[in-house]
Amino acid sequence: MAVMQEKELLCKEWLKKPKKLLINGKWVEPKSGKYFKVYNPATEELLAEVAEAGKEDVDMAVKAARQAFEDGRFHRKMTAAQRARCLYKLADLIEQHADELAELETLDNGKPINESKYVDVPATVETFRYYAGWTTKLEGETINANNNFFTYTLREPIGVVGQIIPWNFPMLMMAWKWGPALACGNSVVLKPAEQTPLSALRIGELALEAGFPEGVINIVTGLGPDSTGEFLANHDDVDKIAFTGEDKTGQKIVQASIKTLKRVSLELGGKAPNIVFADADIDAAVKGAITGIFFNQGQVCCAGSRLFLEKPIHDEFMSKLLDRVGKMRQGSGLDETTQIGPQVSKEQQERILSYVDIAQKEGATLACGGVQPEEHKKGYFVKPTIFTNVKNDMRIAQEEVFGPVLAVIPFEGLDDVSEQANKVRFGLSGAVWTRDVKKAHKFASHIKAGTIWVNCYNVFDPAVPFGGYKMSGYGRELGKHSIELYSNIKSVWVNIGD
Ligand code: NAI
Ligand code: MG
Fold first, then answer.
1. Looking at the CA of 267, which ligand is closest?
2. 268 vs 284: CA distance, rounded Å
3. 273-462 has which fold?
4. Fewer CB atoms near the end CB (10 Å): N or C, the chain?
């Protein structure tokens, strides 16, 4: 481990560079001169100091984006193919810097390097390529409604788009936001999460190399409330806000949108039911339950945090699950053997541990974990944690913990679990494990959530839409659906009557 830490970092020199704001194609100091600190969650050491954009800086970024949009340098003066080439080039550059970016993501977020390398970076690259492809496939329609008129539709970009993203998948969330927005020809102002702004800044540099015109992409780092995020969400000259994060923050974003009726799309929390029927392939379901809750230290909006086990298999399943979880290797994300890293911040670590108390007070049984591991007293670690004997109405089963904490709820038969699965205010995802095709499809339609996995978990593709029902938000990202979030339809009537 120590050896890994001492290994020369690929991004060592880059980390020393000042971390400024990207406005109108240039890296600029914040007007206030204020910088905030970013820590390595595995060591609690300072990683970098990053510019905090104030009101004036956000204003300048929005102005630059507005100017770029209104003079049409990206969506009118460039052809769709030229726009596509910027996105393809960006994808290529990210791929060329894959190792460096993976390392940076792991340093900043804490996630295991094998996940940064084999999930975050390639998924980011493929998302940009997927939307580069859309650039040349955006079309309107002609409508034969009335022979006295030639009627057609134009699909136009919305304008200036503010994008506020979280810290759990920093670069991937950036790709989900930038890909479709830029494919449609919008100008963007991105606000990365204050815990993890570094990969966005590095990708911002690569974007300049990729040839996006000045002002089309802007990055304003900073905090959320009373700071950069709020200034952006409240800005009157922003046409749309895309947000991923906590439901309470989502509500504030909607409130801030009211004055100018900004378009808003929201991807918020989840409390997914992961349902295992007695007829399932138990070993596969055990692996699925682990991926479902422990991937990315449980900091996943679609995490399978409520595990429903049908009573006849409950004990067998639990013994297999606990056996596997007991063998998970926890440590610094930079260590190639690590399967579970630290949480992103002290704040998150404390929040998660507070839920351990809450669950125990409510009467759930702590089956494993629930503490900071003895061997990792430095760093924001939480041992993989499982509660059994959970009831669906306990807080541990209803509130988003956003950590490696699994709530196991036993159930008896189809009707029982159908009711419990949907008794939650979120609806982002759900999963069902069964060999019965009928049951699988029945559940896929019954669960009120935007994504259902059958005999799998956490499978993604840029072509497949993702988003929430209920308080998990609205709008669908990825796939062609994201194009809807970043474009307007205009109907044109041409009088051709006599
Ligand atoms: P958050 O929702 O407060 O932060 C996400 C982003 O929004 C960050 O960029 C932040 O700076 C910004 N932000 C915060 N307040 C804002 C405001 N008033 N106006 C504009 N922007 C604002 O989430 P936070 O505090 O980091 O995490 C708290 C909880 O939220 C987590 O424990 C988890 O339950 C949930 N969460 C859910 C995520 C998801 O993917 N759905 C991602 C991150 C957090
Ligand atoms: Mg917050």
1. 1
2. 28
3. Aldehyde Dehydrogenase; Chain A, domain 2 (3.40.309)
4. C
